[in-house]
Specification:
The chain folds into 3 domains: 122 residues, Immunoglobulin-like, CATH 2.60.40; 98 residues, Immunoglobulin-like (Sandwich), CATH 2.60.40; 288 residues, no CATH class. The protein is α+β, with helices and mostly antiparallel strands. Strands 18, 19, 20, 21, 22, 23, 24, 25, 26 and 27 form a 10-stranded antiparallel beta sheet that branches.
Amino acid sequence: MFRLKRVSLCALVALAAAACVADDDDAGTYVDPPEGTPLEFKETETLELAPREVATVRLRTDANETVALLLLGDALDASLDSTSVRANDSGDASVELTAPTQPTTFVLRAQIDGEASAELHVAVSEQGFTTMKIVPTYQGKRSLDSWSADVLVGGDCESILAGYPADPVGALHVESEQKKDLELESVPVGPQLAVAVRSGSLAAGCVPFAATKPDGKEEVAVTMLDRPMLLTAAELNLRLEFLPDPMSYAVLVQAAGTALADAAFPTETPFASLLLETMSADLPNDAAYSLMSLRETTTLDEQLAVLLGNVDPHAACLAMAESGTAAALADVDSRALKIEGRLLGSGDAPLAPNFQLTSFAGLDASTLGSPMNVAFSWSATADDVLVVSGLLPLSPARLVGAYMNGALSVQLGTETTVTGYIASLVDCPAVAGKIIEQGGVATCDETCLVAACTTAIQNRWEQGLMAGDSLDGSAGSLQIGASAAAVVDNELLPTELDGSWIGTLKSPKHECSVSGDATGEAIPPG
C-alpha cells in the first residue's frame, strides 16, 4: 500500500492565495468549496509507491471544474487512468496512478486552463525509502542566503548543474531560507541518485549517491562551488588609472610631437610652396588650375617666400610640442588621469566584449583617433576575478596635439589652437594680397583666398594628425591587461570591479609601461 511522507510542497499556484492543509482522510468531511477554491491535491506530502503499485490520488477545486493531468520528469512507464477529470458538486475529483516498473521520482501535475495548478511529488522504490540529511559546504566569497537541494533517481550531475538555476524536473526538492543542513524524506533506497545543492544562481554542487538504509537516516556531504560568472550579458563601466613611467612617457610624447610637426609642415618643402599647394588642393577645379598657372608664369612662390620669411610653422610646432609634453607630464603627476570606457558582453562572442573608449585624459575616442568599438577579450576565474585584455589603437600624435592646444591656451591666456596661432603668424590677408598682386585667381576673390589660406593651415595640421592614425595600432596603441576582483549579483553578472592593470603605450619608435588601479561598476539600466 502506498505511503505519504512529509516533504513535498503543496506547490499551489492558485486563483487565490492559500496555505497547504492536511485534510481529514475521510473524504466526507469536505464541504462545498467556495468560489475560487484553489486547486490542490489532498495528499500534501511525497507519494511513496512500489513498482507497478496503483494509487488513487484525490484533488479538490471548484465544483464541476475540469482538471487536466500530466506526468513531469522521468516517469518511465507510469500511467494515469485519465488525462483529465471533472470535479463533482463538492469540488472533489480523483485519478488512478499506476507506478512505473523501475525506481524513479517524478511529478504529477494538475492544472486548469493554465490559470491554476498543483503538483504532487512521487517517489518509486522497491527497497523502501530513507530520510536523507544533506550537508552543504561552501568556502567561496559570495554572500549566500539560502540552500535548496534536489535528489533525482538516475540523475546526471553534469546535466543538473548545467541546467541550473532551473531545478531538475521531477526531482525531490527541499529548501531552507537559512544556511543550514537540509533534510529530505521519501528518498528511494537502492538506485543511483544524484544529490544536488544550490544557492540561487550563485553556487552549486552535486554528488552521486546510493541510499542503503530503508526507514533510516543517511548523511550526504555536498561541496558547493561558485557558478561561472555570466559575461555574455555583462555591461560595465571600466576606469583605469593612467600612471605611465614618466621618463619613457616624456620621450614618447615629445617624439610624437616631432613626428606631428614633420608630417604637418615638412621642412624639405619651402613653407610658401607647401601653403600654395595645399590651397590648390582645396579650391574648385577652375580656381585650382588658375592658381597653378599663376605659379608657373610668375614668381609667386618666391614673392610669397619673402613675405613669409620669418614664419616657421615647423619650428613653432616643435616649441609647442615641448610645452605639450610638459603639460602631459604635469597631468601624470596629478595622478588624476583616467582611461574610461564601457565593456559590453555579447552572446555572439561570449569571450570577446566590445570596448568603447569614452575618455582618455579627458579626450574622447575621435580626438584620439581610436575606433568606437574594439574587440577585447575577458574571462572569469573560479574565485570571481575578471581578467580583461585588449589592444586599443590610439594616436600619440593626436594625444600630444591636444596637449599642445591646451598648453598654448594657457600661455596666451585665451582659448586657442595650434592652427589658429599659426594662421595668425602667417597673416592670410597678406597672403591673399600677394596672390592678387601677382595676377589673382579666377573665380576666387580676396575673401575666397583668405579662407583658402586659413583652411590650408588647418589641413596641414590635420595631415600631421592623420599620419599617426591606424586601425590596427601599428602607428600607436595601448595594450591593456587588467585583473579585478568582481562582486557578482544573483543573476551571476559582475556588478563591481576592484583591481589593477598594466599596459604598454606604443608609438612606431617608442614605448612606455603603464599601470594603475582598475575599477568599475555595472552600467545602470536605460
